[in-house]
Amino acid sequence: MKALMVLSSALVLTGLLGAMAPEVMAKSDKGKGGGSSQPTAPLTCASGAVTSNPLAGGASLSYSQCLDPVSGNDVTSSISADLTAFLDRTLGDWVFDGKYEDGRNSSGPNDLGFSWVQTGKGSGTWSLAQAVTTPFVISLKAGNGYAAYYVDGNTSTSSGTWATFDQKDLSHASIFVARGAILPEEPNTTVPEPASAAALVLVGLSAAGLRRKKQA
Predict the structure, then answer these.
(1) What pTM did the predictor assign?
(2) Residue 135: which of 98, 92, 165 has the closest Cα?
């Protein structure tokens, strides 16, 4: 009888452990990372962004095409093959017009005054001293690679925002514009210098004096 009671108790204990097992296993799995063992999705250019602010106002315009992260450097003494192919495909006839790094601008033929400021981890703003019409491409170099963003809008712009594809600090950024995309400068109204104005007054008085003599 005593042996039967011991066997019965053992069976009850085994049943309880069996019922608890799934919950214990679930807690154990959560303790091992809670699903963090899932493979991380590969970084793409869509993990970052470039936008532009229209001079006429309104909502900012985002990029419409981008080049997925490429390892290495985008702009050195030459422009990388991957970036060149992207520029040919998006801008067509394009011009390199500035690389801003460590507070220095390596300007292109148009000298647009391209620069950027980092305002957060892997994000910030960019600006131009001279407005351009779209389209344009901005390349962002961060970490061990770079990504490029093509913006194709219908208004002129001179500023916008950026975010790196890997949320790392920006090393440098470069801008490329479609040839002929620069806005013409407003024509200057020429004002005669004081000496020129005085000469014009004297000529006018002399002409008036000659008319009076002929009338006399």
Answers:
(1) 0.66
(2) 92
| Rounded distance between C-alpha atoms, residue 150 and residue 51, angstroms | 9
Nearest in space to 136 (alpha carbons), one of 65, 190, 206: 65
Identify whether 77 is part of a domain: yes
* Confidence tier at 94 by pLDDT (50, 70, 90): very high
pLDDT tops 60 at residue 37: no
51 has pLDDT over 90: yes
Please check whether residue 51 lies inside any domain of the structure.
yes
φ and ψ at 156, to 5 degrees?
-80, 160
Question: Residues 120, 19: contact at Cβ < 8 Å?
Answer: no
Q: What local confidence, expressed as pLDDT, does residue 111 receive?
A: 76
Specify if 103 maps to a domain.
yes
* Domain enclosing residue 92, as ranges: 45-178
* Number of domains the chain is built from: 1
Taken in order 149, 154, 157, 162, the sign of the CA dihedral is negative
Which residue, among 82, 79, 85, 84, has the nearest Cα to 99 in the 3D structure? Answer: 79
Q: What percent of the chain has pLDDT over 90?
A: 48
For 89, the token pair is 């495909």
Please give the average per-residue pLDDT across 24-42, as a whole number. 47
Would residue 161 count as lying in a domain? yes
For residue 26, give every residue at least 6 positions away whose Cβ sits within 8 Å of its Cβ, in sequence order, or none: none
